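Hey, resending since the last one bounced:
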Amino acid sequence: MGDSLKYYDLSYLSNIDEGLEKRLGYKKIFVIGKDVHLVNSQKPVEGKTIVKSKDPKNIASALKDNNTIGVLFDDNVLLKKAIEAAGDNDKLVILSLSDVVGKGPLQASRNMGRIRTIISFAKRFNADISIVTLAARKADLTSTMQATAFSELL
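The structure tokens again:
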């Protein structure tokens, strides 16, 4: 069973090579702006997109688009209707490790609580969940083992 699992990540870094992906345990690390676009509105964009917004109308509209693969909640703000729409439209609810790693203890604790709540609602609405690093620096990347350990904390 372990051999059938494939791990993917999402990052802002543009200089990720295949060797680094393999050392960290990922099949592929997708690059924002190159492999996938991060958008905050419903304006059409060429290629696959992830919507990041606090506006439920933008999220609901974007989740109906076939090019949208998921939703990333801006500042981990819980939007129940958006999570329900993600489940109804077979889209990912994407959670970011960068909202916890490298933050101060209070901010990290607050974000962990919000992420737990989002996960609870995602499970309730049968939405698939993905945890990514959204790394802006190589030092922010985590291995698949670290990401798995983090997910177990949730």
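The first helix runs from residue 18 to 24.

Sorry for the duplicate.
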